[in-house]
Specification:
This is TonB-dependent receptor. InterPro entries: Beta-barrel_TonB (IPR000531), Beta-barrel_TonB_sf (IPR036942), CarboxyPept-like_regulatory (IPR008969), Plug_dom (IPR012910), Plug_dom_sf (IPR037066), TonB-dep_rcpt-like (IPR039426). Keywords: Cell outer membrane, Membrane, Receptor, Signal, TonB box, Transmembrane, Transmembrane beta strand, Transport. GO terms for molecular function: siderophore uptake transmembrane transporter activity. This protein is mainly beta. The protein has two domains: 100 residues, Sandwich (Immunoglobulin-like), CATH 2.60.40; 661 residues, TonB-dependent receptor, beta-barrel domain (Maltoporin, Chain A). It has seven helices and 44 strands. It has a 22-stranded antiparallel barrel. The protein has a five-stranded mixed sheet with strand order 8-13-14-11-12. Strands 3-2-5-6 form a four-stranded antiparallel sheet, with no helix packed on it. A hairpin with a 5-residue loop joins strand 2 and strand 3. The longest helix has 17 residues. It is globular and about 90 Å long. 47% of the residues are buried.
Length: 813
Amino acid sequence: MKSIYINKIAPLCAFSLLIVGAASHAQKFSGVVLDADGNSIAKANVSLVNTKYKAVTDEKGEFTFSDIGAGKVELHVSAKNFSHVNEYFTITEQDLSEVTISMRATVMEVIDVYATPLHSSSIESALPVNVISGDDLRLKQASTLGETLKNEVGVHSSYFGPVASSPIIRGMDGPRVLITQNGLDVGDASRVGPDHAVAAEAGTAQQVEVLRGPSTLFYGSGAIGGVVNVVDNRVPKTTDNQVDYLLKHNDVADENEATLNINSGYKNFALHLDAFWRQSNDYKIPGYATAEENHDEDIHDEEHSEEETKGVLENSASKSSGFTVGSSYLFDAGYVGLSYGRMERTYGIPGHAEHSEEEHQEMVTASGGEAAVFGDLVQDRYQLLSEISFEDSFINRLVSKAAYTDYQHQEIEGGIVGTQFNNEMLETRFDLYHQAVDGWKGAWTLHYKESDFDAVGEEAFTPPSSTESIALAWLEEKHINNVLWQVGARIEQVKLNASSAGDLHDDHTDGLDSYSEESFHFIKQKFTPISASLGAVWGYSPGYNIGVSAAFSQRAPSASELFSNGAHIGTNTYEVGALFSVHEENHELHVDMSDQNVALETAYNLDLTWRKFEGDFGFVASAFYNHIDDYYYQANTGLFAEDGHESHDEAIEENNIEESTGLPVYVFQQNNVVMYGVEAEFFYQVTPSLKATLFTDYIRAKLTDNNNDNLPRIPPMRVGGQFNYITDKYSAELSATHYFKQSDTAALESETAGYTMLDANVNFFIDAVGDDMVAFVKVNNITNEQARVHTSFLKNVSPLPARGFTVGIRGSF
């Protein structure tokens, strides 16, 4: 199978190399970048949009481009603490010099977004965007992508322990939120189940971008809820020499971490190497892991302590490591590069730890202790990136991307592999950019993705399946006076094919006695999702704009949403796909093929964003409304099925007879849904050294065809704020976030109490060898609050960590 994928990707490499060309020579374009007071701005990034030309201003704020072809060009200028500037110029037979660019200061950080084909900045998008980079990313960096992003407005975490937390965007996750690396699917199994770790590492990333809202136009079906794009330098674009490093330790999990990024080059060849290593023990918690409401009222604290350890979340240890090597060939018109990366992770899945040596076999984890269930993943990833510009041509730029991913994940219980997940994925993408036509600039995209996924083992809950998609997309934008118009459309064909599957129903805990084995034969599923969007960004006054986006998006269901039928030990549930029906008859649980047709998920989304981004006070306020027809969701049936675990010890078998251990049965259903909410951030530069930030978000999600019942695991409302103080020698931050009680729950879903998290950090700037060295101290959960995450399947058995201290050092040279 691997050779087939390599044969498919090889022509792309050859194609990218064949079209390497030379640029024609023409005129010189130079200028200076100044602030509103006329002072020069050094280290500003200056580029000609959709060309190879890029420069950084010197100490006098000056820049120069040579050999510019005649015609109209768009100049883009960005600098830290300033709003981005876009201006148009016409290059003629003579040199264009003494151009002056004026930039206005901003209290907000404005960063270019790579996740969108036209690379607009975070304040120029019709849809709201979060971007974390630089020191901010290093401060927020956690062991999972979900925990790294959980404090971003509009973003929460699924929190499946310290290593398997995925981002949730506006209440959506799983197959609706696409995780990408440099714009290509990470190709792991995290979209199948929340217990699977995301195979993308924030520790070696340059920036992480979050598109909040439908992004199917850019990425297809799997992005109807949004996109998280991890941008790194694995395929380098410059030969600049730089080394970045980080070392840190936290006491809440006795965790040690090290990351390293090296970039260099020789002549036309750029080189990159990065690596990371992280290891932790079971982490500390305030009190007991199991929520009190899960215990009988007459169980006292003394009896409680006999069944679980107080102050520690058992089976939460982990070990992760990985590296990436990459190289690029740089030429006048662009670059072409290839990288290889490998990631390995072993982590416990909380909520499965046993409490007696007689009840399980001893298993050595990353921390050297015992564990009942843990995950073990290995991923190999090859990535090709290329960007080539063409002068004097209607097609002025070609961006090519391809990735092949070989992913394996084992769920191990008591030393025995219960399930092994395998996923081989090939993805290719070509973006063709054209010269402006009557002011409209844009791109066409050809996008192909193929995934072969299978789950093997006695506890596999989904049959082997393949998913293939091919799509054409089109995106244009134009400035008309002070309004930026954005329009686009996409058509996609998705094919899903699953092997025949046998279904095993064992005894279960509610007295439903049945045992039957039946083979299910699936027909190939074909879908044709269509997406279209219209957006506008109106700069109605200097430093202000309003963004409006209306989108029509469709999503094809994932293989797990259709074909699942079995016990999922990672989530402690019995999962049944939408192609089946579940019912109880004569105290027997029956799973049969359904006679109902499955449909595309269709969303009608409206987003409104208001921004003020210049001066000492700024804000971004968003409101959204999303009506979704035929929304796929997991409904709790109220039935239970036997967990299906094979017993490897007679004591276990006898215990299972005496004490029922049934798994709740969840079935994928379709229903019409409305989701709406608000998000806001406010920034105030109190003094040159002190900055205050306030944020809040709120979301409601209801099933409109079912008495307006609530969707399960929807994040609660929250309000947060922070103070940042910075001097030449040090900086400090104090932040607090209050999560309100979540009482808008689904049927058979429990409420979750509110809580407040108080965190702080101090950074000391050290004069040493290199450009930057920072020693830092962080304190999380200062008040030692006991908190549970409503969006987690494990909220009743896996609370957030106790008070923890982190110390470390980071730098570059």
